[in-house]
Amino acid sequence: MVKKILGWVILVVLVAYVVCAAFWAHAEAAKNSCKGIQIQIVENNATDSVTRRGIMSEIDKYPEKFIGKQIPSIDTRKLEQYLKQYPQFEDVVCNFTPSGILNVKVTPMIPELRVFEDSSSYYINKDGKRMASKAVFFVDVPVVSGKFNEKFTPKHLLPLTRFVAADPVLSKLVGMIHADDSDNIILIPRIHGHVINFGDTNRLVEKKQALMAVYRKVLPYKGWEEYDTISVKFRGQVVATRRNKGDQQPQKVEYQETDMEEATLPELTYTENTNQ
Question: Is the pTM of this model over 0.70?
Fold first, then answer.
């Protein structure tokens, strides 16, 4: 009888041990599983929310799912390499916090311009490095277009785009910048009627002052659609090309010095060229 009771006691203890061991193993497994993902952005800036959404979008596409998975089985280096393939990120470091959160630390590429060239579109950063213009990484930055090459790249436009963005008048006036070449950079105003040939990226303050003189002293009397092009590219003068060149129909904008009217900068006056 005693042996029978002892057998039952041992059986109960064994069952209790197995149950406790199962609960302990489950608790340990839960303790060592990934409980969530957090995105850490180095050097906070205005694009942080866009970068976070973009990273989470790429992680969602990753072949493996992390939340609930055992931490030892997660290859963080593989995830780092996966995210580093995107030019939007300068660096990516992935590790786990003591509480089981997958921390994705990202040093983002900060775009300064969006470039439209032929049929392609991309961003560049301050160093001219390209980034694909993916919808999940859309950033509101100045827009430029043109044909570029090794000698004349979108990076050459940064002094002008920064100048426009920092100027309270030009930032509201200019909607886009188009570069025919390095010596004919065209500002396209948000108001319709004409475009502005800024030439190159030198003497920006002087050129802006010349443009403002035309806006104050000429266009209020001539009309905003009298000219198709206002050029401030030449030192000491403003050249305005009339829209109508002998007929009543607006003609295609051409950046050439024909049918011109000039205004000299020193006196800030405007005189018509009578030899037309």
Answer: no
